[in-house]
Amino acid sequence: DAKTTQPTSMDCAEGRAANLPCNHSTISGNEYVYWYRQIHSQGPQYIIHGLKNNETNEMASLIITEDRKSSTLILPHATLRDTAVYYCIVRVVSHGQNFVFGPGTRLSVLP
Amino acid sequence: DTEVTQTPKHLVMGMTNKKSLKCEQHMGHRAMYWYKQKAKKPPELMFVYSYEKLSINESVPSRFSPECPNSSLLNLHLHALQPEDSALYLCASARAGSGDEQYFGPGTRLTVT
Fold first, then answer.
1. Count of A–B CB contacts within 8 Å?
2. Between the CA of residue A52 and those of A18, A41, A55, A70, B16, what are the distances in Å?
3. Which one, of B42, B46, B41, lies nearest residue B61 by Cα?
4. What is the pLDDT of residues A30-67, one digit of tens each?
């Protein structure tokens, strides 16, 4: 699986959009980009994933660059409950295969 | 039911004890996972079960013994653990086919004394 790099930490004001970047310059053509988050003392929570097109769901939007070497997770209106560690993972979609979690970005949403 | 449950929530055990962690899901998922997470570190994969068969063992010491008695249940049997095995143990499941996002349980906080 390709390696990802993310900023160690970020701050965001409550009510503003949180834009979390992820670099995955060695991504292969059949690897998807996944985002998970982990709120303190809870299990990780799936947010969104995509291959090459931008994706949106009720939680967030995922913007993938045309060359697929980087992506951005957007939380449109961050709340205090969005404070968490956000993990960007790239992997082949194949049943029973593993996820490799990197260090992630610690997002702090400030009042 | 979109929940993965884990019991117990907390466990304290001595180095000579034998204990088991339990994970359950009723989403019809056919892949189940055990992860270990130390404080301030990302989760690390330990085992993967696919259709009730062990498909990945990430070189985990034999004092950790997984078991998948049926498609809804996953156990992790613990024996002769060391204090450095103290961690949050997370279970996850995923459906068969593409997409394959994992659903995680809340974890069991294990302390080895």
1. 63
2. 21, 32, 9, 11, 51
3. B46
4. 889 999 999 988 999 999 999 998 999 999 999 999 99
The residue assigned the tokens 């960007």 is A88
Distance CA A68, CA A61 (A): 16
The reply to whether A40 touches chain B by the CB within 8 Å rule is: no
d(CA B27, CA A18): 32
Q: Does residue B59 sit at the A interface (CB-CB below 8 Å)? A: no
Q: So what's the pLDDT on residue B39?
A: 92
Which of A3, A51, A98 is best to mutate for the B interface (most B CBs within 10 A)?
Answer: A98
Nearest Cα residue in chain A from B34: A98
**Would you state the structure tokens that stand for residue A29, as one six-digit string?**
């053509």
How far apart (Å, rounded) are the C-alpha atoms in residues A12 and A77? 10
Name the more confident of A100 and B109. Answer: B109
Over the stretch A9-37, which tens digit does the pLDDT of each residue have? Answer: 999 999 999 999 999 999 988 889 999 99
Residues shown for chain B:
113
- Smallest CA–CA distance, residue A76 to chain B, in Å, is 22
Verify whether the Cβ–Cβ distance B50 to A95 is below 8 Å.
yes
